[in-house]
Design goal:
alpha+beta, 6 strands, 32% helix
Length: 192
């Protein structure tokens, strides 16, 4: 039942993201590799809409400098054709844990600095044995994951692969049940 204020404003209360759910990804990577021969690529990214003003520019610059100062590879800032920005991190394919730590740091930092509304999603890249790209997408606003498998060169998805991945991971992480909330991330630089 909706609360009084929700009825008056026509808005539902936003779900507080469970960013620690991102740490389920290393286990999911092992499951996908052993059960389906789907392997991590070592590439992941956080997608957000850049906020206006110098505070966001400064927060983003500090975040990139912080991530570049660790022992891992430098992060890459990639604008996309839809008005979003991606911070891309690359690690060895077998080090999903370090990759997830970077993604968690980006999400947490932007959230803690007041830019939570700018966050859209985090994606970790995978490839099937046939080379089919696959992303495990974490939606910041719902705190859930869904698989996204774009067919190369098309604006279509490999729905069968996505369903197989969901079946394998249904007990490992919170999966998005509502298909209308499983947005296609066309031209995702993580899956390029």
């Amino acid at each position: 039942m909706k609360g009084f204020w929700s009825v008056l404003t026509g808005r539902d209360k936003q779900v507080r993201p469970q960013l620690d759910s991102l740490f389920a990804l290393p286990g999911a990577a092992v499951t996908l590799q052993t059960a389906m021969d789907v392997v991590a690529t070592g590439v992941g990214g956080v997608c957000y809409r850049q906020a206006e003003g110098p505070a966001f520019v400064e927060a983003e610059a500090e975040l990139v400098a912080f991530l570049d100062s660790d022992e891992g590879p430098d992060v890459e800032r990639v604008p996309d054709g839809f008005g979003f920005t991606w911070l891309i991190s690359r690690w060895p394919a077998d080090d999903v844990g370090s990759l997830v730590t970077d993604l968690h740091a980006v999400n947490t930092s932007l959230q803690d600095q007041g830019f939570a509304r700018s966050l859209l999603a985090s994606v970790v890249g995978f490839r099937s044995a046939t080379g089919q790209p696959l992303g495990l997408v974490y939606r910041y606003t719902t705190g859930t994951f869904y698989p996204f498998a774009p067919l190369p060169g098309k604006r279509e998805r490999d729905v069968l692969l996505e369903l197989q991945v969901k079946t394998q991971l249904q007990h490992e992480m919170p999966l998005e049940a509502d298909q209308t909330k499983q947005f296609p991330l066309w031209d995702c630089p993580v899956l390029a």
